[in-house]
Design a protein that fits this description.
With 412 residues, the protein is α+β, with helices and mostly antiparallel strands. It has a single domain, classed as Cytochrome p450. The chain contains 15 helices and eleven strands. The strands form four sheets. Strands 1-7-4-2 form a four-stranded mixed β-sheet, with helices on one face. A three-stranded antiparallel β-sheet has the order 3-11-8. Strands 5-6 form a two-stranded antiparallel ribbon. Helix 6 crosses helix 7, helix 7 packs across helix 8 (149-183) and helix 11 (261-274) packs across helix 15. The protein is globular. It starts with a helix and ends with a strand. The structure holds protoporphyrin IX containing FE. Protoporphyrin IX containing FE binds next to helix 10 and helix 14. Protoporphyrin IX containing FE is lined by residues 42-43, 54, 114, 224-225, 228-229, 232-233, 236, 277, 281, 340-342, 346, 348-350, 353-354.
């Protein structure tokens, strides 16, 4: 853990963390760089404003919207991505590729679609978008890196300026024009894209006081959606593939289940339980509070919620909680992924997009979720870890992430 976490009261108990996350008396907290990029956005809004924003954005994660993202934005990108690799077959007939960056590329279109970023279309534009998002994501999660924070923030600000100039501003201008045409009755609602920026335009919620002296609100909200969606999922897929590769080595009888969405969903939930997108979440007490455990938290005190440890609590998840077991019984009254998507009102807004809607996946509505969808398409093409080039864990950050996961495709 970085030193700033050590300086805080740390909560590791599943029950206590849940209580804090669900309490209206604890508000979002965290490193200053998160506020530079995310102040006033969904994740930092509280009370009525949070409820208002959540209700406004809800339709972005409706089942119909998710089906659109998966079938129209994700599947073609995965197929194109895999097809483009087919040309790089080695002498043994296999294709070798690095999974972390491959998955990242696959996710850019879906995140651009949810946020409302136009022009992530050609390979060059996608590559440029990806590079800028990487810099922005590193800045907003600067608290977990080993690099000087000021340097990261400066880089993140420059990346956001470029993102605004090259992608976000033209996308917003198009939506503002569409919003005006809609208000005059010149276009119907069918002609309006369903994304964050369009939703903000229709609600006339683009500007906030103080926008002239800091990153404007509309770009902060975009930064949250882009920052929260790509790098989280792109780390979850490699973890899942690595776990399944090891599982199959020990349980060869499950090999044929690697392309079974129901099995992959179980595995995805278990892998999510074991690996968090950040090592801790932070909350500040708005008044003196005594938790039901008896723990006292003083008004103004920030606590670090160590969900990684809570998600391995044997009282909740049963025997051998450190092990990956896709057949682990569902914990009573809890999500199979534990606290990985948080809990309470700030629970992850995109969790359905990641994990789909249980038992309702079908070819038309496509609600498998990005994790299962990507894993299935990889395994359909015979994806396995490269035995000669092992995964490399991230070294420049404290995060539970991989820098590289080299894989081989047997059937591209
Ligand atoms: C594996 C992937 C993901 C993981 C592990 C994850 C995890 C989380 C967690 C733990 C929180 C709560 C943070 C807290 O309580 O302090 C959160 C919030 C959020 N996530 Fe995700 N996330 C993922 C993917 C996504 C995606 C795809 C989106 C798409 C838009 C997204 C959007 C958000 C937003 C907007 C919030 C703020 C919600 C609020 O405060 O009401 N996330 N996420």
């Amino acid at each position: 853990m970085p030193a700033f976490v050590d300086a805080l009261a740390q909560i590791t108990s599943y029950k206590e963390i849940e209580e804090v996350m669900r309490s209206a008396d604890f508000h979002q907290s965290g490193a200053p760089e998160r506020r530079i990029f995310f102040a006033d956005t969904l994740i930092f809004a509280e009370g009525d404003r949070h409820a208002e924003l959540k209700a406004r954005f809800r339709s972005l994660m409706s089942r119909e919207a998710m089906a659109y993202y998966e079938v129209r934005l994700l599947e073609p990108v995965i197929e194109e991505g895999l097809a483009s690799l087919a040309g790089s077959r080695g002498a043994d007939g296999c294709v070798r590729v690095e999974l972390v960056s491959l998955v990242r590329t696959m996710l850019h279109k879906i995140s651009a679609g949810v946020t409302g970023v136009d022009g992530v279309d050609t390979p060059e534009r996608t590559e440029r978008f990806a590079a800028l998002i990487t810099q922005l994501s590193e800045a907003v999660s600067g608290q977990w890196t080993r690099r000087p924070t000021e340097e990261l923030i400066a880089e993140g600000r420059r990346a956001l300026d470029d993102l605004v100039r090259e992608y976000l501003r033209p996308s917003l201008d198009r939506r503002l024009a569409l919003g005006r045409a809609f208000a005059k009755g010149e276009v119907t609602s069918d002609a309006l894209p369903r994304d964050l920026l369009m939703t903000m335009c229709l609600a006339d919620d683009i500007d906030l006081t103080g926008d002239d002296i800091r990153i404007p609100y509309v770009w902060r909200q975009c930064s949250l959606f882009l920052g929260a969606s790509i790098h989280t999922t792109s780390q979850s897929v490699p973890h899942l593939i690595v776990h399944l590769d090891e599982w199959i080595r020990d349980h060869p009888e499950d090999r044929s289940r690697l392309t079974d969405p129901a099995f992959l969903r179980q595995a995805a939930m278990e892998s999510l339980r074991l690996h968090q997108s950040s090592l801790a979440k932070f909350r500040v007490a708005t008044k003196d509070i005594r938790l039901s455990s008896g723990r006292h938290v003083a008004a103004g005190e920030t606590v670090a919620l160590l969900t990684t440890l809570a998600n391995r609590d044997p009282a909740v998840f049963g025997d051998d909680p450190d092990a990956f077991d896709p057949y682990r019984p569902r914990p009573a009254g809890q999500m199979p992924w534990g606290l990985t998507f948080g809990s309470g009102r700030h629970m992850c807004f995109g969790s359905n997009l990641v994990i789909g809607v249980a038992g309702k996946a079908d070819a038309k509505m496509g609600t498998d979720g990005t994790l299962v969808k990507i894993a299935k398409m990889l395994f359909d093409h015979g994806c396995r870890l490269d035995p000669d080039d092992r995964p490399v864990a991230a070294t420049k950050t404290y995060l539970d992430a991989f820098d590289r996961v080299p894989v081989v495709f047997d059937r591209l």
